[in-house]
Amino acid sequence: MALDNIGHLILPVAQALWGPPRPGGTKTETRFGEGRTINQIKGIWYDHSDDKGGGVIALVERETGRKGREAVQWLVENGFLDPSEVEDRPNGQRPPQKQRPQQQPPKANGAASEEGERVLIKAWDYVDEEGNVLYQTLRYQWRLPDGSWRLGGDGKPAKTYMQRRKARPGEESRDGWVYNLKDVRIVPYRLPELIETVANGYTVFYVEGEKAADALWEAGIPATTSPMGAGKWWDELTPHFRGADVVILPDNDPQATKRDGTPRFHEDGRPVIPGLDHARAVAEHIMPVARRVRALMLPGLPPKGDAFDWLEAGGTAEQLYDLVEEKARDAADPAAFRAALPFKSQFGAKWLHEARAGKPRRDWLIKDLILAGSFGIIYGPPGCGKSFLTSDMLLTMAASDQPEWFGYKGRRFGVVYVVAEGADDFEIRLHAWLADKGIDPEQVIPFVYLPTSIDLRSSDAPAKALAAEINQISEMMQEKCGVRVGAVCIDTVARSLTGGNENDSAVMSSFVANCNLIQRETGAAVIGVHHGGKEGGRGPRGHEALHGAADFEIEVTGATPETPNLWTVRKLKAGPAGATHRFRLRQTRVGEDEDGDPITSCIVIPQDGAAQVAKKEEPKGWKVNPTEREFLVVLAEVIERRGIAPPADLNLPPNVLLVVSRTDVREAFWQKYAASEDGDAERIETRLRQRWSRAVRSLLRFKIIAAKEPWIWFTGKEVRDFRLRGVVTEPEPIATHVEPAEYDPDDHDFTGGL
Predict the structure, then answer these.
(1) Residue 48 domain-assigned?
(2) Which of 208, 336, 557, 729 is least surrounded by Cβ atoms within 10 Å, i.e. has the fewest?
(3) HEC assignment per residue over 476-506
(4) How sure is the predictor about 487, in pLDDT bands with cuts at 50, 70 and 90?
(5) 409 to 38, 367, 396, 400, 401: CA distances (angstroms)
(6) Both 457 and 578 in a single domain?
(7) Would you say 662 and 710 are in contact if contact means Cβ atoms under 8 Å apart?
(8) What whole-number distance in Å separates Cα of residue 749 and Cα of residue 696?
(9) In terms of residue numbers, what domain contains 206?
(10) Cβ-contact 713, 705 below 8 angstroms
């Protein structure tokens, strides 16, 4: 069976299978869900998550599981096709051509939905040489029930574009228009003016978008464009530029990204930058016929800015022509033309002088504690008050214009708090905090909590959904409170692992990757509330991957009748760690239950003094080099998996709890690092032996490890930013690290005496 001319069904079929489109989109594509798009002009779909796409039938087959004739029957059953259109015919035989049903025009004043009412804002006429309308480009926006415009991710009104042409005699149409450009003559915008400009030998400016072209004409500057914006060109446009002197003004677009936030590149490695790519494509098409083709990037354009924005900022016709003479570059000279279109690094390259040009700064949310967009863990044993402390910190930042917390100055920012457990108790905690601070219950504070558990282990889909919702919340916070979301809290980490083993490398790495995704998509810092290890000072519980990924770590310990609760900055990549602060949890009455019994919660009461600035200490412990740390990581992992109590004949100090076989450590070392080495097996073996030898000899020399055949263990000497396994750490005085002796090729004792 063969079906033709059903591409016009792609939108209603996609809506039936995928649900309503999501906000955003472009002039040519409509977006659905996670990375799915359709092109109504071409009648095709594409799923960016698995690199699949096709036409209407392929979409039905993919989403319903019905193949071939059954997929067509699905279209009939659901009212998309008339049964008469799908009569049996020999395979490969082209069906008789029938009148194609036309797209229905969007309702300019349709019923309002949650996404708003779509409203026609502007129609731009594309006319022939005589001024007769051939087709139009339409701009739509969405009006919300309160009368405001729905906003896009850039804070501007969300918009979409489509095209329509005049219906021909006898052609089915509801309002005299057909909402596609099928079989229509494609011409440049403002064709009569373009013809006159070229005939008189004047320079014509090519821009992306009718709005920019009109703005240039209003300023007395001849300009044109083509329908559907960047990435679209018809060969029939080219002859209209014969003999023309053309200057292309690209939009200042950023590098395009995939749905996961990673940058997009062409097959040759160039970054995908829509505005610049379109400028190059237009130049290539019209150079064979034009008298001259140049490009000029207007100075001072904002991100996604264009000629309209340049004029709005005060640009004039005189200034534009001066810029053309000074900075426009001829497309006939490839090197010069590339110079006119600014270099955009694939990897964010910066020259040294650019780094030195500005004043060094750090973007702190809470100065000397939490950087914007960072990732950190607040951990401690059950009942230590870590959740109370974390919520107190974030509430303080959200509720005050000039917040200060335990002597740390911060800036106001919005918070999204994921309450993965104890949602009812959390709400009581909020009541207590607001009452204690005397805050009006009606005051809108940029603090939103999500009483649900989020799976941040199994896949990245929940993280993407969470990030999308956070961005929506951020827009609402900006509108209501003047700030965006600056921090996202996951309380607790364990409840976000959906039963996974937190000591498993893959489980914890997946959690960290999803937190990084949320950071990347929202720009917010991500804070996890987690349990501590069995022994104090050991860092957060679970696999080392969590500790390694954290930009900061705060350890919380519980109180005793004699001593208050304690929180300590155990790790801070952006500054010195070691600051220690004391607090108490004061019980406070919030209300009564139905039996008249009191409902209580706790309030964090600092014990340092409100104005006391935290004392900072230099990092403690021995500083090891990368090769030594490489060995320590493997040793710690093997001790955790296969460590045993020390045999009695070793007579080890009581602080040594576990020892491990040298053979096990060596095998794990080779397994972990051999795959990262290049070369033949012999070369890899030699390099690994060298690294093993250097690390073991040095660590033995500095008494960080000890050994007696066949065992190895940690001694308890503290190592900077590293958690030892199987030993109770006894802090020792800090000494300056001495680099181990260089490997002697004549020394074949690769085990350091083991």
Answers:
(1) yes
(2) 336
(3) HHHHHHCCCEEEEEEECCHHHCCCCCCCCHH
(4) very high
(5) 48, 6, 11, 11, 11
(6) yes
(7) yes
(8) 11
(9) 191-340
(10) yes
> Does residue 287 lie within any of the structural domains?
yes
Distance CA 426, CA 434 (A): 12
* Beta bridge partners of residue 162, listed in sequence order: 138
> Are residue 163 and residue 195 in the same domain, yes or no?
no
Residue type at 163 in one-letter notation: Q
For helices 10-18 and 56-64, what crossing angle results, to 10°?
10
Cα-Cα end-to-end distance for the chain = 75
Residue 612 lies in a domain: no
* DSSP 3-state of 690: helix
Query: Do residue 524 and residue 629 come from a single domain?
Result: no
pLDDT, residue 231, reads 66
| Cβ atoms of residues 609 and 406 within 8 Å | no
Q: What percent of the chain has pLDDT over 70?
A: 82
Give the highest mean pLDDT range of 59-68, 203-212, 418-427, 674-683. 203-212
Handedness of CA 727, 729, 732, 738 (dihedral sign): positive
Lowest mean pLDDT among 106-115, 296-305, 518-527, 660-669: 106-115
Class of residue 168 by CB neighbours under 10 A (exposed 0-12, middle 13-18, buried 19+): exposed
How far apart are the C-alpha atoms of 173 and 247, rounded to whole Å?
40
Residue tagged 């030998």 (tokens): 201
Mean pLDDT to the nearest integer, 687-709: 88
CB 483 within 8 A of CB 412: yes
Per-residue pLDDT for 538 more than 70?
A: no
User: Can you give the pTM of this predicted structure?
Assistant: 0.46
Q: How many domains in the chain? A: 5
Contact call for residues 199 and 291 (beta carbons, < 8 A): no
Q: Is the pLDDT of residue 575 over 60?
A: yes
Q: Residue 67 belongs to a domain with what CATH number?
A: 3.90.580.10
Amino acid at 495: R
Where residue 273 falls among pLDDT bands split at 50, 70, 90?
confident
Residue 199 lies in a domain: yes
Which range, of 15-24, 392-401, 553-562, averages the lowest pLDDT?
A: 15-24
The answer to whether residues 501 and 597 belong to one domain is: yes
CB 522 within 8 A of CB 485: yes
